[in-house]
Design brief:
This protein has about 280 residues and is α+β, with helices and mostly antiparallel strands. It is about 30% helix and about 25% strand. It has 3 domains: about 160 residues, Beta Polymerase, domain 2 (2-Layer Sandwich); about 40 residues, no CATH class; about 70 residues.
């Protein structure tokens, strides 16, 4: 099913509710602009049509020019390798939207990140605990991906509340956040009843550095260098991902030789990490 059929299915299932706009800026993606009242239901429909999880759900702060936020939900239509981007505007003075998490579980973590980074409320999400901005050190009311965020403001600190599993014979095994070896920090809390693990809760973000904010205002040459510093074990992979984005935006074609060289460098980086992990 291609993008035109998906748009037709949307119109069929929601008669009288035509998408605000349909843009096909690139051969491998379609962007469908829809109103906030139908955003959740249409996302669920496209999720069922494409059989795709939410590949990405992110917000844009456009309050300076238009007093609005933009929410984008991305699915992958595997049948024709095409990205389907559902987009909606929400008012800058009432930043909230209906949560997708109860209908599409893969949206949950993205919604939590939108909440902690922008302060936008996904109404109905049952778990809005932070992912990267830990409650013990990051005061409430600070949203670092807002365009007008400058300095950390004072506020209340609190203790992170892990999910408790209760019952006879249940015990908790905390592991981390510091681990032996080369992996980054992460806290893993196992709730077990003997051998069976009832629940595993993972807490990451201990080395979150706000890289996304650092990209703002940089020219492409500077941004490529920054992308190489995101993660030391995948410097080439990150810089190539950024390069692909720039090439796509400007419609740049690369030579066949460049494609092969990039593949070789990616494989060298991958093999290096495997060898390093083995020791």
């Amino acid at each position: 099913m291609d993008s035109r059929e998906i748009v037709a299915r949307i119109k069929e299932n929601f008669p009288g509710l035509n998408p605000i706009s349909v843009e096909r800026n690139f051969p491998d993606e379609v962007c469908i602009k829809i109103g906030p009242n139908a955003f959740k239901d249409i996302c669920v429909l496209v999720h069922k049509i494409t059989l795709s999880p939410v590949m990405m759900l992110f917000a844009l702060d456009e309050r300076i020019n238009a007093n609005k936020f933009v929410i984008n939900c991305v699915f992958l239509n595997n049948k024709n390798a095409q990205w389907v981007i559902l987009s909606m505007d929400i008012p800058g003075d009432n930043p909230c939207f209906d949560s997708l998490a109860k209908n599409i579980h893969s949206a949950s973590l993205f919604e939590r990140e939108i909440k902690e980074m922008f302060g936008i409320e996904p109404k109905g999400n049952p778990d809005l605990r932070r992912l990267n901005l830990h409650d013990e050190v990051w005061p409430q009311g600070n949203y670092p991906l807002l365009k007008d965020f400058k300095n950390l403001k004072e506020g209340n600190l609190s203790e992170y509340k892990f999910t408790r599993v209760e019952g006879s014979g249940i015990f908790e095994v905390p592991v981390g956040p510091v681990h032996a070896g080369i992996i980054g920090p992460g806290h893993f809390r196992f709730s077990a009843a003997g051998e069976p693990i009832i629940n595993l809760e993972i807490r990451l973000g201990f080395t979150h550095r706000g890289v996304e904010k650092l990209f703002e205002g940089k020219v492409c040459s500077e941004a490529v260098q920054l992308s190489e510093c995101v993660s030391g074990d995948s410097a080439f992979a990150h810089s190539l991902a950024f390069t692909h984005a720039v090439e796509k935006i400007f419609g740049l074609a690369v030579s066949e030789k460049s494609v092969y060289l990039r593949a070789i460098f990616l494989e060298l980086e991958r093999m290096y990490n495997h060898v390093n992990d083995i020791g």
